[in-house]
């Protein structure tokens, strides 16, 4: 009986939970738009959106990423839908785990945020094959992204599937869900001309098809100047302030603000300075923009073989405000948070202006845009008489010089390449070039990055010099054919036609007979044989009789490889490997992989042999891969032998070990800097491709000047270093002990040097001057709103914060006065308040975060008539580690 009651209780509880999950997130509301903005539930809105691609994180990370987006000032979460993740086999859908998009949208809704779903289904995104399932190439008569019936049928099927799913789950705004906006196609305008009239027809069809699905919220197309009347054309780029949609009836939306950039194997790592990013965003709203999305707010990780390319690395950190592991990337996150708060203070005035704002020329490269209106609601930013509201943006687009400008009778000083935001047309709430937010450095060694304003991904050794394991076992991967699923065919088959992308790898094997005449010819003529291939992508490794002759890497590059052949039969085995399928450009279905053109052997007595029509054996994938020897179930099925010191650094080798998870909650990374190229699995989860290619020695900048137009080569780090050394192992994939780590190594490396690292903030610094703007949240303080006090009377504040679960363990530097130097090299200047360290330590030590007012009242005035600054450096430590140390 008791059991029965328990079961009943359980059922009731699950039903309640279920109901909670199905509950409406909002009161149902409509979304429409006019020339000024999206209209949400009858009101124009200025919206900030955070780009997060759900499969680039694990579901357990989603709530925190959404919460940190919201805290950072986002109203909307934006993502693509990843077709090849959702329909890996035609007709077989996957909406589980990292592909549980319904759960993701619901989490966004329950956080009270809106959702922008970009269905594509072509998405680009540095994602494998731009999001297309590889089986799509095999649909008879198909041509992608044009007026082609088979393609349109498949595209419509997937788009409908997604819209129907969202509708069934009650996720559209008019159903009380968070989805306010959709997207069809992606940047088709970039390639449209390649398709002539058929491209134009296709776009019209895509628009009609999308609308016919009855989703009931607006659709956008990005970079589509000929978007039909009922679709909003949106801007993508580093700057979109000059953007005008193709019809007066549409608002200016910015679907992709590239706040960073992606990285290529062997490339430098790009960073976008936050001062420039903030400038671009402020300029957009200044000049009439109304919806802005960060691509990416959180970039995350290309787990498994999801990264596109060719040659995009496993990390998709993107220099985003939330780093690859989900930690705040500072000062980016904090400075943009302040920017968003300032823009939000202007929202009533911004939406009140129907046509253009008032434009005031303030100088040769200085201008103001003034938004005035009457407030019908209780408005926070108004300090003007009556119900008139006014907000202004003052811009100095001079890349070199600051400017002093006169605006409505007051003088304002504008740093170069900056915008000041005045929510009340009088007081500066924010300037894009004045960063008050803290810098976080995530490790001691890497913190000495060349840019003081750029934080490097940083790592802390879990246990210094402790190898993850000294007990590795290894297993050899055969060179060439290994199994029963191989076959022979006349001629060279296209790589993807054979592999269907079930693996990166395809072996092409053939036998070549060398006569005694040939070998004596080589001796006398000194001419030696060469293997010639018209062109290849992405990697080929050429083996003759089991020995590596050479490797070639590139995107459709020619091969001319000297080979050593012996008299009699020789086995030529060529491994063709993809490193992420092409994700951008026209005619993707034709791109393929492997070889193009003739394959031949030159330097024979008889001249050359054309191997293009020879009999070849084909073997898809690696034996270990197909036996799943990386999985918890199957790893024992391989023959493993103990790793011998002298067998380190062999190629085509599997390595296996077990390790315990580091305690605590800090994100975990694997240092694979000692390895060559391959893939790594933890407890059967593919954590991604690894490749220790080194970035060029030169081309990184000593300092990064935020001023002037940004491009992805402008501010790069990591010159002469391995492009990606650390690989994220999501906590969700770990158990406390005995975690299985398996690597497949293609070129050779030393597993004994692999280590597990914890990723966390170690040092934080901030610098705020007494003339900095007061904290943005105080603008809504009742005393300010009711004009009992003026915002300009309030002192600025410094805010310091360690990662969640950490505390400020010590304050290593504090000076209120005229401190010198930057983070990690601060020193006291001539003027220094002796109270500095005790005031800051008192306020901060032992806490996760703290706030200090920057004023004489707090520190005492150490030097009158001198402009003073507070500079602080502090250490962060995990609070559990601190407790342990104190025990
Ligand atoms: C855009 C594209 C995105 C992404 C981005 C670069 O052109 O729409 O999907 O690829 O470039 O990160």
What does this structure look like?
The model is unreliable at 15-20, 377-385, 444-465 and 883-887 (pLDDT under 50). Helix content is 19%, strand content 30%. It is globular and about 100 Å long. It has 4 domains: 2-329, TIM Barrel; 440-477 and 626-753, Jelly Rolls; 487-621, Galactose-binding domain-like (Jelly Rolls), CATH 2.60.120.260; 761-886, Rhamnose-binding lectin domain (RBL) (Jelly Rolls, Sandwich). The protein has 17 helices and 44 strands. With 887 residues, the protein is of the alpha+beta class. The strands form 10 sheets. It has an 8-stranded parallel barrel, surrounded by 4 helices. Strands 23, 24, 25, 26, 27, 28, 29 and 30 form an 8-stranded antiparallel β-sheet that branches. The site of beta-D-galactopyranose has 9 residues, from loops.
Low-pLDDT segments: 15-20, 377-385, 444-465, 883-887
Helix residue percentage: 10-25%
Largest sheet: 8 strands, parallel, barrel
Strand content: 25-35%
**How many strand units?**
44
Bound molecules: beta-D-galactopyranose
How many domains? The number is 4
Q: What is the residue-averaged pLDDT?
A: 92
How large is the count of helical segments? 17
Strand order in space, largest sheet:
4-5-6-7-8-9-10-12
Radius of gyration: 30 Å
Secondary-structure class:
alpha+beta
| CATH architecture tag of the largest domain | Alpha-Beta Barrel
What is the CATH C level class of the largest domain, in words? Alpha Beta
The coarse overall form would be: globular
Intertermini distance: 48 Å
The name CATH uses for the topology of the largest domain is TIM Barrel
The CATH homologous superfamily of the largest domain: Glycosidases
């Amino acid at each position: 009986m008791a059991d029965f009651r328990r079961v009943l209780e359980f059922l009731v509880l699950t039903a309640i939970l279920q109901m909670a999950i199905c509950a409406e997130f909002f009161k149902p509301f409509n979304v429409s738009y006019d020339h000024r903005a999206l209209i949400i539930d009858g009101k124009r809105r200025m919206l900030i959106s955070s780009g997060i691609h759900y499969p680039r994180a694990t579901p357990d990370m989603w709530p925190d990423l959404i919460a940190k987006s919201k805290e950072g000032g986002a109203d909307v979460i934006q993502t693509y839908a990843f077709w090849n993740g959702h329909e890996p086999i035609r007709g077989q859908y996957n909406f589980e785990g990292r592909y549980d998009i319904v759960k993701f949208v619901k989490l966004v809704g329950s956080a009270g945020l809106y959702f922008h779903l970009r269905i594509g289904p072509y998405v680009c995104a540095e994602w494998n094959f731009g999001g297309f399932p590889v089986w799509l190439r095999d649909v008879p008569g198909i041509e992608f992204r044009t007026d082609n019936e088979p393609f349109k049928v498949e595209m419509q099927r997937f788009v409908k599937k997604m819209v129907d799913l969202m509708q069934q789950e009650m996720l559209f705004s008019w159903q009380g869900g968070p989805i306010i906006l959709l997207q069809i196609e992606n940047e088709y305008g970039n390639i449209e001309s390649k398709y002539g009239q058929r491209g134009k027809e296709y776009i019209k069809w895509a628009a009609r098809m999308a609308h016919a699905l009855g989703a009931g919220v607006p659709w956008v197309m990005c970079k589509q100047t000929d978007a039909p009347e009922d679709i909003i054309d949106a801007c993508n780029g580093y700057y979109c302030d000059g953007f005008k949609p193709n019809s007066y009836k549409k608002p200016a939306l910015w679907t992709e603000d590239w706040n960073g950039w992606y990285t290529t194997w062997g490339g430098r790592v790009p960073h976008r300075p936050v001062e420039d990013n903030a400038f671009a965003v402020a300029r957009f709203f200044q000049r009439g923009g109304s919806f802005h999305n960060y691509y990416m707010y959180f970039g995350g990780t290309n787990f498994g073989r999801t990264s596109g390319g060719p040659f995009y690395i496993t990390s998709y950190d993107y220099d985003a405000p939330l780093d690859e592991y989900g930690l705040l990337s500072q000062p980016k996150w904090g400075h943009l948070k302040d920017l968003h708060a300032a823009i939000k203070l202007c929202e009533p005035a911004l939406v009140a202006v129907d046509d253009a704002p008032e434009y005031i020329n303030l100088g040769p490269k200085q201008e103001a845009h003034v938004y005035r209106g009457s407030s019908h609601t209780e408005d926070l930013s108004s300090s003007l008489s009556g119900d008139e509201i006014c907000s202004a943006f003052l811009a100095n687009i001079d890349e070199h010089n600051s400017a002093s400008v006169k605006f409505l009778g007051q003088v304002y000083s504008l740093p170069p390449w900056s915008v000041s935001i005045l929510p009340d047309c009088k007081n500066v709430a924010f300037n894009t070039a004045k960063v008050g937010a803290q810098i976080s450095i995530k490790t001691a060694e890497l913190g000495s990055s060349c840019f003081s304003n750029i934080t490097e991904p940083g790592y802390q050794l879990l246990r210094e010099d402790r190898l993850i394991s000294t007990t590795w076992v290894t297993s050899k991967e055969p060179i060439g054919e290994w199994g029963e699923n191989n076959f022979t065919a006349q001629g060279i088959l296209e790589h993807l036609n054979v592999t269907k992308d079930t693996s990166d790898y395809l072996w092409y094997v053939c036998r070549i007979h060398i006569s005694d005449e040939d070998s004596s010819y080589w001796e006398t003529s000194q001419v030696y044989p060469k293997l010639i291939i018209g062109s290849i992508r992405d990697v080929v490794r050429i083996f003759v009789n089991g020995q590596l002759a050479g490797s070639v890497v590139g995107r459709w590059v020619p091969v001319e490889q000297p080979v050593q052949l012996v008299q009699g039969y020789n086995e030529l085995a060529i491994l063709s490997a993809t490193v992420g399928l092409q994700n951008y450009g026209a005619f993707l279905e034709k791109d393929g992989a492997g070889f193009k053109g003739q394959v031949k052997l030159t330097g024979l007595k008889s001249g050359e042999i054309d191997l293009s029509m020879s009999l070849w054996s084909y073997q898809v994938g690696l034996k270990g891969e197909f036996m799943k020897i990386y999985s918890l179930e199957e790893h024992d099925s391989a023959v493993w032998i103990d790793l011998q010191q002298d067998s380190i650094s062999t190629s085509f080798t599997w390595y296996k070990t077990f390790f315990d998870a580091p305690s605590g909650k800090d994100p975990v990374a694997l240092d694979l800097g000692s390895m060559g190229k391959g893939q790594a699995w933890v407890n059967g989860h593919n954590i991604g491709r690894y490749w220790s290619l080194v970035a060029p020695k030169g081309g990184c900048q000593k300092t990064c000047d935020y001023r002037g137009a940004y491009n992805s080569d402008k501010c790069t780090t990591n010159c002469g270093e391995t492009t990606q050394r650390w690989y994220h192992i999501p906590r969700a994939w770990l158990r406390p002990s005995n975690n299985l780590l398996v690597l497949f190594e293609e070129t050779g490396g030393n597993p004994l040097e692999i280590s597990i690292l914890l990723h966390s903030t170690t040092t934080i610094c901030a610098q705020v001057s007494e003339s900095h703007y007061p904290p943005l949240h105080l603008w809504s303080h009742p005393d300010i709103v009711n004009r009992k006090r003026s915002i300009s009377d309030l002192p600025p504040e410094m805010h310091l914060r360690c990662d969640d679960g950490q505390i400020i363990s010590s304050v290593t530097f504090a000076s209120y006065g005229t401190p010198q130097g930057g983070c990690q090299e601060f020193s006291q200047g001539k003027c220094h308040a002796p109270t500095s360290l005790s005031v800051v330590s008192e306020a901060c030590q032992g806490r996760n975060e703290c706030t200090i007012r920057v004023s004489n009242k707090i520190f005492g005035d150490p030097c009158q008539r001198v402009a003073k600054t507070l500079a602080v450096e502090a250490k962060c430590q995990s609070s559990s580690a601190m407790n342990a140390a104190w025990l």
